[in-house]
Amino acid sequence: MKLDKVESGNIIYLFMKVRKISPNPNKENTDLSGTLCDAVMVALRRITQSLDLHSRYLMREFGLTGPQLVILQKLSKFDDISVGELSKSISLSQATVTGILERLEKRGLIERSRSSVDRRRVMVKSTAECATLLNRAPPLMGISFTGAFTDLKGWEQMMILSSLQRLVDLMEADQFNGAAFYETDILEQTDILEQMDGKK
User: Which CATH code for domain 27-199?
Assistant: First the structure.
């Protein structure tokens, strides 16, 4: 359906009015970009908050944080894997992964050993206790989200994934250290877990 010039003009006017953008073309582009960037950051914070809430639920019900569950689920797919390969596969620094593995090992959920081929490499594998825990643990992203996302059309799922991947590329292309930004929350969560372990 084609819009005539009057209809098109009305739509543009309403759009500018809602966004409170100046009719000045140059200022419009600048203000719109700034507004959209702010909206993106707000959306990212809401996602982070949702993940944090679910991580707190996992900690309360299963004694696990979200990052710990990510690691255990990844380990369950391998007989064993090196710490370096594990950290790359889940996009966390090796130092962060090592700290999480230490806590999981104390609980008997994983085992670490030196590689028989290269003694410099530390290999990790999950235990039978880990398998038991994973069998009763909820989905990493939560049951409601997982169900709602699964119900989406295939093209909608791919569009969301593609947009998120593109966003990651943009953030990494800029000088914004996204990994450090999100690992800060992860480190805080693991510190909380240490405190809980100390009280037991």
Answer: 1.10.10.10
